[in-house]
Specification:
This protein is mostly helical and 280 residues long. The chain has twelve helices and two strands, in the order ααααααββαααααα. This is DUF2785 domain-containing protein.
């Protein structure tokens, strides 16, 4: 179907056209999540799929089918860098985010489905090599930011318990500590910090674990003090990413109020920042 048709649907009622086969419509829009054209991917496919997922109109079986397709999308081209396959991975993440947000209001997912989504998201966090933010002419890739948004939704669910939340924290730390060619300069550290704040709001992760987790960020992945990594550009960029993340964590904790876990996390994060740089 032509983009102009879907733009009219979006701009009019935004509802599901009654005269078309629903499975065909969902498949057609889903196929454009991989488009390098942001007018298709961002302005049409994502907008309409998210709207239909979140509102009345779709059956839960249809939402489940979209979730399964999106989970598969997280693995499409995984391991490649700087090609268009990143768009399907990144925007499948946002489809899953809409599905989880719908479930938080009108539950329909089972625990096993949550864990399938979580495992796929953690795999993407670990293995994604394309860390581009905005791609000229093609719009936002922004996979890490979109993953952070998915984690921000997932951690609200009672289906995820202490061990699940610890897996998320451990995976975020591992990603941030990894020597890298990319400084995360498109807001990714803030989005990740926001997800961690939401996670801490659950108040089920033991404070000693939070302390140990933040302390792990106070030195490089090789166990060297951050002040000793200036000879390694990849570690220097990782240090910058960790600093951005911990700074955002401290600021957001204070802005969003201080429950016990968040207050302690802010203290631990500030201590870690001071170990990274005396400027803090």
């Amino acid at each position: 179907m032509r983009r102009e048709f879907w733009e009219r649907v979006r701009d009019n009622t935004g509802g599901l056209p009654a005269h078309l086969d629903r499975s065909v419509m969902l498949a057609d829009l889903s196929s454009h999540l991989s488009s390098p054209d942001p007018r298709w991917r961002e302005d049409v496919a994502l907008v309409l799929l998210s709207r239909w997922i979140l509102r009345q109109g779709l059956q839960d079986t249809e939402r489940r089918s979209l979730a399964q397709n999106a989970i598969e999308g997280l693995s499409a081209g995984l391991g490649r860098a700087s090609d268009d396959s990143v768009f399907l991975r990144s925007y499948s993440t946002l489809v899953l985010c809409a599905i989880v947000e719908r479930d938080l209001i009108h539950p329909f997912l089972r625990s096993v489905e949550y864990r399938r989504i979580l495992s796929s998201a953690l795999r993407l966090l670990d293995r994604e090599k394309d860390l581009r933010g905005f791609v000229p002419g093609k719009g936002w890739a922004h996979t890490l930011a979109h993953l952070a948004d998915l984690f921000d939704s997932l951690v609200k669910s009672p289906h995820l318990q202490d061990q699940d939340l610890q897996r998320i924290l451990k995976s975020i730390a591992k990603r941030l500590l990894r020597p890298t060619s990319t400084v995360l300069g498109y807001g990714e550290p803030v989005r990740l910090a926001k997800a961690v704040i939401t996670l801490l709001n659950r108040e089920i992760v033991p404070i000693p674990y939070i302390n140990s987790w933040i302390d792990s960020l106070s030195q490089s992945s090789k166990g060297r003090r951050w002040s000793e990594v200036d000879d390694n550009p990849g570690d220097v960029r990782a240090r910058t990413n960790v600093t951005l993340f911990l700074s955002a964590l401290v600021i957001l904790t204070r802005v969003k109020g201080a429950h016990k876990s968040k207050a302690r996390a802010a203290q631990f994060a500030l201590k870690a920042l001071r170990q990274i740089s005396e400027g803090f």
